[in-house]
Design brief:
Blueprint (H helix, E strand, L loop, with lengths): L6 H20 L3 H4 L10 H24 L9 H12 L3 H20 L3 H4 L2 E3 L5 E3 L3 H15 L11 H18 L3 E7 L5 E4 L2 E9 L1 H8 L23
Parallel strand pairs: 3-5
Antiparallel strand pairs: 1-2, 3-4
Helix pairs in contact: 1-7, 3-4, 3-5, 3-7, 8-9
Keywords: Isomerase
GO molecular function: isomerase activity
Pfam families: MDMPI_C, MDMPI_N
């Protein structure tokens, strides 16, 4: 884990993100969940099914950490996609209940882990081997970002600043690791943070608020984020 991202931080962000997501969800009537979201091909129902299935998948990793029994997040990428499609077709009340129940179960399973179990290696859906301490960060990222994606009035600027800075750290490291996009130098206005992304070409300067940079790096709306001389910031490939 990043040196400035402790387990206490990630558990706190997971709890905050869960509250933010479900507080936003409760404001959406069932018919709104049937509408498209900004995520290509997904309605609100797909998004909610994904968040529910993600909690179930992370419960699998918590079980792996607690018992040492290898329990992958998903049996396969195809099964994951099929489960989201099937979940999106559930009655709205059942879908909401699944998401709430899965979130509560994940919180309970993580609370059972001891120090040795938190350190046990598990495997993410992308195939990375990480200590179980990464699980609450993985969940915090899901519920925080998807609270925005719900389209219920939550924006990146409503999320905690320390979480946004940590997420920028995470995304810039991933983008630098794959090297598929443009090289960037990022500067946050109203904050002392600067980041670099390794990639192709000379580094392009990009400026925006913490919230704006997080939206830009994660492939969401980029209001207020600018490139050199006020031009649009470079387009980026998918983050995950």
């Amino acid at each position: 884990m990043a040196a400035d991202r402790s387990r206490a931080d990630t558990l706190r962000w997971m709890a905050q993100g869960t509250r933010t997501f479900f507080d936003a969800l409760i404001t959406l009537p069932d018919d709104r969940l049937a509408r498209p979201t900004a995520l290509d091909g997904w309605t609100g129902r797909h998004l909610l099914a994904h968040v529910a299935a993600n909690a179930d998948a992370l419960v699998n990793l918590a079980h792996w950490a607690r018992t040492g029994e290898e329990t992958p997040m998903y049996s396969s990428p195809a099964r994951r996609d099929a489960d989201i499609e099937a979940g999106a077709a559930r009655p709205a009340a059942e879908l909401r209940a699944w998401a709430a129940r899965a979130a509560e179960t994940l919180e309970a399973r993580l609370a059972e882990l001891d120090e040795r179990q938190w350190a046990r290696q598990v495997r993410t859906a992308q195939g990375r081997h990480v200590p179980a301490e990464e699980i609450p960060w993985m969940r915090a990222r899901e519920v925080m970002v998807h609270a925005v994606d719900l389209g219920a009035g939550v924006g990146f600027d409503d999320l905690p600043a320390d979480f946004l800075a940590a997420l920028i750290d995470d995304i810039t490291a991933k983008r630098s690791g794959n090297g598929a996009g443009p090289a960037l130098t990022l500067t946050a206005t109203g904050h002392n943070g600067t980041w670099t992304v390794s990639g192709t070409g000379d580094p392009a300067p990009v400026t925006g608020t913490l919230a704006g940079l997080t939206a830009y790096l994660s492939g969401r709306r980029t209001d207020g984020v600018t490139g050199a001389e006020g031009r649009p910031a470079p387009e980026l490939p998918h983050w995950l």
